[in-house]
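Lab notebook page, bench 4
Experiment: in silico fold of construct C2
Operator: M.H.
Input chain length: 123 residues
Purpose: comparison with the prior construct
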Amino acid sequence: MLAKLPIELKALFYSLLIALLLSVLFAALLCFTGLKGSALYAMAKITLVVSVFMGGCYVSKRYASKGLIHGFSMGVLFFTFLLILSLIVDPNYIDIKTLLTNLALCLVSGGAGGILGIGLSEL
């Protein structure tokens, strides 16, 4: 099924899978350790950064050129997906500060993943 999809959509799928796995891991940490609920914000940001970074790395490794551009595009694609999902679930919860913070995190981590992906494509 994934073989016929464009590289960007495969990368988005892998990024979402990584985000889901990290979310489950962090939920288990919150339940079974002494971590407080105040750590949830940091965990959410770590999940966002790691998943977009890995997606940017995947997409630029597959293209083997223009890593920063492909990483940025992965960040924008992931951010757009999150925005649409947020608008569907609860549009009243969205504020401009969170929106811009998430966009910046997606762009920076996607770009960094794209740069690393170029280095990995030569291995």
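Observations: Residues 8-121 form one domain. The chain has one domain: 8-121.
Next step: discuss at group meeting.
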